Amino acid sequence: MTRRTRNETTTRGRGAVTVLGTSLLLTLFVACGVPTDHDPRPVDPGNVPFALLAPTSSAPEPTVAGPSSLDTATVYLVDAQGRLVPTTREVRFPVTLPNVVSALLAGVTDAEAARKLRSAIAPGTKLRGLDGPFGGLLTVDISDDLLGVTGRRQIEALAQVLFTVTSVRGVDRVLFEFEGEHHDVPRGDGELTSSPLTRRDFRALEAASSSTSSTAPAYRP
Question: Is the pTM of this model over 0.70?
Answer without folding.
Answer: no
